[in-house]
């Protein structure tokens, strides 16, 4: 959600803070700010909008100092304006915060009784006010921060900086990730290792409830009970932290184009000849009675796709749920259940809460994540990496196909264990999977066809996506992608549902994107297309050569993809869904990588 950073450096820290914030901008971009201590004096600069506005401000109004904290905001409490931008300051205390302080109104009321009043609409300011209040009662800086932390309810990652203290940052995490970086006579803190990558690759991840006291030479960590604890630092691969557009205009374009390579790498990580090799021991799927899968957004659609695979290939009953519904519905999770959570970031608050709900209830807790050190990975019995590499674009692309890949491998593995698939049939599927990066390349080479269709689709106010079977979740993903970055209203339906209501929407202004390879369900989808066309609807059919021929010439546009094994179609058909959304967004002139109102990692409810 928001991104936070702190540096105790040997040189001026403003440029380092801004550089780190640039790498965290994917977490939020409503406003940004930094605070430093220079010759003992605490000062700050803040600017509304993208980080570039803060950089411009610092050119005209520089902020000296060798210690500092910084923040890039995704607004929760209070409008995105300069007053509400972080760092928040009360007297000698400045604080940056990621998360939500749920009891901030109670704390405000308490402070008001001491005539301490807020100047902003934010929950975060309360932290600065309360810590300041404790300081005035004679507490030390560290004790005041820790006393404040003990009062906070909700989710947070925090960094405090104090006037007169140019060798001290206090940082804490509860519900939001935080990493401490070790330098040579320097110390850093950041929302993730990626932010700190240009500064160091030696990282200590704080655990839930930890409070860290940083100086340039020392790191003291205390757990939630207040006991001093040791957390082992680890080396992070610099490759894993690379964040650049590699010549592409947008991260999303780069991440779409990377998919053949990333998928090939992911397959290399999981396959050994005709066997699937998992990095950790998995439950015995022959004993699993049901699988409960939980996620949000695109990851939820990956789960919906996997439901078809687990049910059809492994004959394993599957329930799929949206994390924000699952966690409060309190569904019965009975013995025999394996719970599986899918999350690119591994930090999505609702998915994490759903996972914690299942702990002690489900027999096994599995997760499929892109960040090995994430909270969801750490809280799982087994975390399976998707090997997508850093995904910066807010719209998930390569993470989706890599989630599908990992889930498919898991379903194939379960099928063999449950003897619903022979080793020979598995070998055949793996051979076809290995050929998929080549088909990805062939599809991307025909990107101009999707660009052409997308330009026309961008003229529409509403768009419908239709799909049957494995293509239904993909239709949902296509609609999400389109609305997310082009702001075009898009809905997706199972093709068979069309005449139960949505067909009323059809007229010649509504493009209907139909995802339909020539499979066993194709003829039924053709009937649905006819129903659309009979009402003047414009069908954009995404299919293979056989499907294009069978569909006839009445369709408005046809996007032809290579033929692929039916089981693998969701992976391949994800590419046109992504490219249509991308080119429609370009045509509309929207901010592709940082669409309005969104942030990459949703660490608040
Ligand atoms: C996808 O394009 C979205 N940005 C969003 O739906 C995302 O998939 C969702 O927020 C879940 O995130 P996660 O995978 O990090 O848990």
Protein described:
The protein has 605 residues and is an alpha/beta fold. It is 37% helix and 24% strand. It is built from 19 helices and 27 strands. The strands form five sheets. It has an eight-stranded antiparallel β-sheet. The chain has a seven-stranded antiparallel β-sheet with strand order 5-6-7-8-12-13-14. Helix 8 runs antiparallel to helix 14 (423-445) and helix 13 runs antiparallel to helix 19 (569-588). Residues 296-299, 343-345, 348, 351, 394-396, 484, 601-602 line the site of 2-deoxy-2-amino glucitol-6-phosphate.
- Major sheet description: 8 strands, antiparallel
Mean pLDDT: 94
Helix percentage = 25-40%
Heteromolecules bound: 2-deoxy-2-amino glucitol-6-phosphate
Shape: globular
Q: What structural class results from the helix and strand content? A: alpha/beta
DSSP strand tally: 27
Low-confidence sequence ranges: none
Helix count, DSSP H or I runs of 4 or more residues: 19
DSSP strand content: 15-25%
Distance between the termini: 10 Å
Radius of gyration: 25 Å
With strands numbered from the N-terminus, the spatial order across the biggest sheet is 3-2-4-1-10-9-11-15
């Amino acid at each position: 959600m928001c991104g936070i950073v702190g540096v105790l450096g040997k040189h001026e820290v403003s440029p380092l803070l801004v550089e780190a914030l640039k790498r965290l901008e994917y977490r939020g971009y409503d406003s940004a700010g930094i605070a430093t201590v220079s010759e003992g004096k605490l000062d700050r600069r803040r600017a509304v909008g993208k980080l570039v506005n803060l950089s411009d401000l610092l050119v005209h109004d520089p902020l000296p100092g060798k210690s500092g904290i910084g923040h890039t905001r995704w607004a929760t409490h209070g409008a995105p304006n300069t007053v509400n931008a972080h760092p928040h300051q009360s007297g000698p205390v400045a604080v940056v915060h990621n998360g939500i302080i749920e009891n901030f109104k109670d704390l405000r009321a308490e402070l008001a009784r001491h005539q301490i009043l807020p100047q902003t609409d934010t929950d975060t300011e309360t932290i600065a006010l309360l810590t300041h209040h404790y300081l005035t009662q004679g507490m030390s800086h560290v004790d005041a921060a820790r006393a404040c932390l003990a009062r906070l309810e909700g989710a947070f990652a925090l960094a405090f900086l104090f006037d007169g203290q140019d060798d001290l940052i206090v940082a804490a995490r509860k519900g939001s990730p935080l990493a401490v970086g070790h330098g040579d006579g320097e110390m850093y803190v950041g929302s993730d290792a990626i932010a700190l990558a240009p500064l160091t690759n030696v990282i200590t991840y704080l655990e839930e409830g930890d409070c860290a006291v940083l100086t340039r030479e020392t790191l003291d960590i205390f757990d939630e009970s207040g006991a001093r604890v040791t957390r082992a630092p680890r080396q992070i691969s610099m490759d894993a932290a690379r964040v650049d557009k590699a010549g592409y205009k947008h991260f999303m374009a780069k991440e779409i184009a990377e998919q053949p390579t990333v998928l090939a790498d992911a397959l290399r990580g999981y396959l050994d000849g005709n066997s699937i090799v998992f990095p950790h021991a998995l439950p015995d799927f022959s004993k699993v009675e049901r699988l409960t899968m939980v996620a949000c957004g695109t990851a939820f659609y990956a789960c919906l796709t996997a439901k078809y695979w687990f049910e059809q290939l492994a004959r394993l009953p599957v329930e799929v749920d949206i994390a924000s519904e699952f966690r409060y519905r309190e569904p019965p999770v009975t013995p025999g259940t394996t719970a599986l959570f899918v999350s690119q970031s591994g930090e999505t608050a609702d998915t994490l809460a759903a996972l914690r709900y299942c702990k002690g209830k489900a027999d096994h807790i599995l997760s499929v994540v892109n960040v090995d050190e994430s909270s969801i990975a750490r809280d799982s019995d087994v975390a399976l990496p998707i090997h997508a590499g850093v995904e910066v674009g807010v719209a998930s692309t390569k993470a989706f196909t890599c989630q599908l890949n990992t889930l498919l491998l898991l379903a194939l593995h379960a099928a063999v264990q449950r003897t619903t698939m022979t080793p020979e049939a598995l070998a055949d599927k793996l051979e076809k999977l290995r050929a998929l990066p080549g088909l990805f390349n062939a599809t991307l080479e025909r990107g101009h066809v999707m660009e052409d269709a997308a330009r026309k689709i961008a003229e529409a106010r509403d768009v419908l996506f239709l799909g049957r079977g494995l293509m239904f979740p993909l239709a949902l993903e296509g609609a999400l992608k389109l609305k997310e970055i082009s702001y075009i209203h898009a809905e997706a339906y199972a093709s068979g549902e069309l005449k139960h209501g949505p067909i009323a929407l059809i007229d010649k202004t509504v493009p209907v994107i139909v995802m339909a390879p020539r499979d066993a369900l194709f003829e039924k989808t053709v009937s649905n297309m006819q129903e659309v066309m009979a009402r003047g609807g414009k069908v954009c059919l995404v299919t293979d050569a056989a499907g294009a021929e069978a569909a006839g010439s009445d369709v408005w546009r046809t996007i032809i993809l290579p033929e692929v094994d039916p089981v693998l179609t969701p992976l391949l058909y994800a590419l046109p869904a992504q490219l249509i959304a991308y080119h429609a967004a370009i045509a509309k002139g929207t901010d592709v990588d940082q669409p309005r109102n969104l942030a990459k990692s949703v660490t608040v409810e």
